[in-house]
Every structure is written in structure tokens, then in C-alpha cells.
């Protein structure tokens, strides 16, 4: 398997070597960029102030091409990323085989305050339709946001709290229709200023019907629905308002938003989730706050989240509530011995409540406090970056029989970038991070309807320690550019769910809803356990300017392997993918053609079934219209899954019951005025 990875890397390097125009250039300048974050707009992301380039920034135009009804599916075809897709209503990003709390999802650099890590049917409480861009971060910069995020950080950015003055009011809107979901959605954002005060208002609405598919929802059930995934409709809305006072040395502002999401959980039970969240935000930046410091950044959010899980009859089966307060402060200091960077503190308080027959996780209070520092330095053809974080966290279950668990977590990271030839750069990054088990892994005890399992937590679990190593080769100039990433992640005390086999007969235990063993019981018993694990893989892409500024070809591939201590496969690992994008831009026209091949996943865990491969073909054409100097429109038409492939995500618990949408035509208009 490792041999295959190096063969793929070699092929990509050969593509890079076809363009040798810069091989004999002079020594590189000192401004080298590591995979951190580079500021590209007024300060909204704390990672941006480190001055580094992000692993991946997906801007609004590309988001339009990729956008789906949930965050995970929107990012599912980015390099190294897939989705836990649990129907159109719910999907969380999976990065390099890491999911759950190993991938931190944020909105404007603060946690989303939802319960999406508890179960894959719980939606992430953020919306991509009004996002200005999404950052996917790895490396030292992730230490700014949390311990043990071995997969990375996904940061959804919007303009809820304005940080600048507007000469004139401005507005953005987008409306779209999707034939496969019968989706009607739209978003309107308006911003302006009066005196020293800026304001922003946003509104979003999305409504879909059950998704159309090319065949049976469940290919193993001859009585399964044909052409439709029942109970997969969505009805969601999002309203927000924000305002800020803008001064000469910074700004201070606040916002309030309300997100409501009513969606179905595909399956014969006909369950639905009725979710609502009110989010309050405070933000402030101050330049030159103290001698020796360039900027102070503060952020606070309070999230009032709740959702009800409804039975087919309409009765409430369970209620989840999460009140979460988070605050952070960061100081950017002036160079000291040529080192410059950020230091800060982060606090989090979470009060989680679950009630009802299907509440398999007890009520609990969780708190964490962390301090962090990330520093960088340039030296000749090198750039170095180091980071460290200490965090204390505790989980206090409100159950008499369970004890509070406390954890001290230490994380460090170091990286170096060597620009050894003009236009070529080698990145080396090592990160050691620790993660505390969450309340589900520690205290779960009961039926988890969404995954048809009976989950048993383990209150004695240890903290998880990951050791990440990344090697990346980049070519950044010439008609051919691109990069190859090789990664290896060794995790000690890896927390995972393991099927129970009480009598060692090779058959997993099944139980009824009371946890009593039945040979043909409806629920598979899953115990939380720990062992060593390793993840390794490759990501590569090459961009070829066939006609400079007009036609560009992008070739890409990624693959990841996940192995446990006994060399067994880790379940729901993304299969290998490869393909190409062809982009055309000229005058008012732009077009894109994408073809992706996802191979069959036959590297499966015990009791896991294989997943067939598929070919995905997408296309888009867009036309820009400029009516006045400040009024611009774009009409776009997309074709998704034009081959009408039966697409089943190996990473989804619902792969055999809810495939992705079939052939779809998407049309819409986007405007700025």
C-alpha cells in the first residue's frame, strides 16, 4: 500500500518537472509561506494574523460551484476531505480519515455550539449559503483553536460583524433551484455605514423535497423505494443582524443570529429533527494596545441550541439542549529576536442536556481553559513556525454513579519551509496533540437510533495522543503548478467503537432497546475502546495553464489508509479518488467541467460491507453582466451527476439506505449592488 502512495507521488512529480522554466533562477526571497493562514481580507480569522497561507481557502465563487445543503457535502470533494453524509439535512467534514472532535468546525473562528459530534444525524449549526469563504487549516495554526484536532480545522467565515466602514450601502443576493432536491433557496446580505457605525443584515431560506435518485434507495431490499429517498426533505432559515463602531485603531461590534432547520432522517422510521439555535457574538480588535504588541483581538459567543427528535407519529422521542459560552483573546507581538506571532487564551463552558427515551448520553457540564502561542521566523531561504498549547478540560456528568473526569492536554507543533529553488518549496511539519474523550465516549449508555446501535461508554478512557507528520512539495510558478502532500498520523490510545462479542463466537452481540441480548435484536452493541492506530496517505494536484488566463486544467488525486494496532482496517475510511477539472474564463463567460472517479472501497473493517465505486460528472456555465459601475449580476447553470451514477458514500452510516442525489440541473442568479 505504501508503494502505491509513492508511485502516485512520483507521477505527480513528473508532471511538475515538465515545466523547468524556473529551475535555474536565483535564490528564493525570504518571504516563504507555510501551510498556516495568510490574510486576504479585513481581519476576520485569528489565524490570518499569523501571516501564513492557508492549506485551503474556498472563496465565494467556488462555493457556488460546490454548494450542497450541508457543510460536509459542500466540502466533500476537496482534497483530503469527505463527508459523514447522513442525508441532505446533515453532514460533517471528515479530513484525512479523522472525524468528530478530531475536526473542529467553527464559524468566524468560534465554535458552532451544536451537538453534531454526538451523532451523524445532528446537523452542523452553520450555513454555507451566506459564507464569504471557508478555510481548511492544518499544521501549527490549528493550535490557536483547540487541542487534539488531528484532522484539522474548518472555519466558515461571513460578515455578520462588520469591521470596516462602507462608502455606500451594498448588498449581495443569490437565488437557486436544484431539480434533484426540488430545492428553492435564496440569500440576501446588506451592509452599510452611518458615521462611525457599520451594520450588516442577512437572511437565508432553503426548502427542498425528498431527493431523486437513479435506482432503489436500498439495493439489498427488493421492496425499497425506487427513484426517491423518502423523508429526506429540508426546511431551513437563517436571520442575523450585526453592528460595529469603527475607530481609527480598531472596532468593537456585536451580532445576533437565529438558525432554524427542520429535516428528515432517511429511513423507514420516518424520524425528523426540529433544530433551532440563537447565537450572540461580540468582537473587537485594537491596534497597538500595549507597548510591544501590534494588535489585540477578542471574541465572545453564546449559543443557545436545542433540537427535538420527532417520531413518525409526530411525538417527541428526545430533546437535546446545549448552552455554550466561548471566549478568546489574542495578542500579536512585535518581532522578538526575529520571531513574530500570536499568544492567547481560550475559555469554554458547555451545559448539555438530553432527555427522552432515546437520550443515550447523560446531562453533563463541560469546561475547558487553554493558553496557546504560535510563532514564525524567516531565515534566508527558510521559514520556521512553532506552536504550543496547554489546555485543561473536565466533564462533569449529572449522574450520581458517574465521576467527573479531568484532563491536562499538551500539544506542540513545528514546521519548516525551504524554498530551495525559485518556484519550488519543501514543507516539513510535525505536530503532537492530545485530545480528551468527549461525553459520548465516556458516558453513553443506551440505544442510538440513528446508527441502529446500543452504545456503551467507558468512563475510564485515557486522553488520546496523535503524532502527525507532513511532507509537502510545492511548485508555485510557471504554467504548471501544484503540490504533493504525504502524511502519516500515529495515534496512541485511539478512541473508537468496537462491536461486542461476549461469547467469542465471532458474531457481534445484538440487543433489544433495553440492552437485553437477542440473537436477532435490532441494535448492534458498540463499546468505546482504545488502541493504537495509524492513518497515512497522499494528496496531489497539478494545475496546467493550457491557455494562460483562459483555459486551465487541474489534475488531482487523494487517498487515505486507516489501520488499527492489529492491522485491521478502521471503518468508514474514504476510498481513493482521482479526476480532473477543466476551467474556461473569457470576457463575461466562465465554464467548468469536472470528472471524478471514486474507486470501490474494499479495505473494510470487520462486519463492514464494501462500497462500489462511481464516476461523478459535473459542469457549470456562467455569464456575468455589469449593469452599472456598482451593479453586477451573474447567471449560472450547473449539471450535477450528469451520468446519473448511484453514489454511495462509504463514510456514511446510511450508504445502503440513502444514496446521494441523481442527475440534477441547478440554475440561479447572483448579484452585487
Automatic annotation (TrEMBL):
Keywords: Cell outer membrane, Membrane, Receptor, TonB box, Transmembrane, Transmembrane beta strand, Transport. GO terms for molecular function: siderophore uptake transmembrane transporter activity. Residues 57-153 form the TonB-dependent receptor plug domain. PANTHER family: TONB-DEPENDENT OUTER MEMBRANE RECEPTOR, TONB-DEPENDENT RECEPTOR NMB0964-RELATED. This is Iron complex outermembrane recepter protein. It comes from Nitrosomonas ureae. Belongs to the TonB-dependent receptor family. GO terms for biological process: siderophore transmembrane transport. It comes from the Bacteria. It is found in: Cell outer membrane. Residues 271-642 form the TonB-dependent receptor-like beta-barrel domain. Signal peptide: none annotated. GO terms for cellular component: cell outer membrane. It is a multi-pass membrane protein. InterPro entries: Beta-barrel_TonB (IPR000531), Beta-barrel_TonB_sf (IPR036942), Plug_dom (IPR012910), Plug_dom_sf (IPR037066), TonB-dep_rcpt-like (IPR039426).
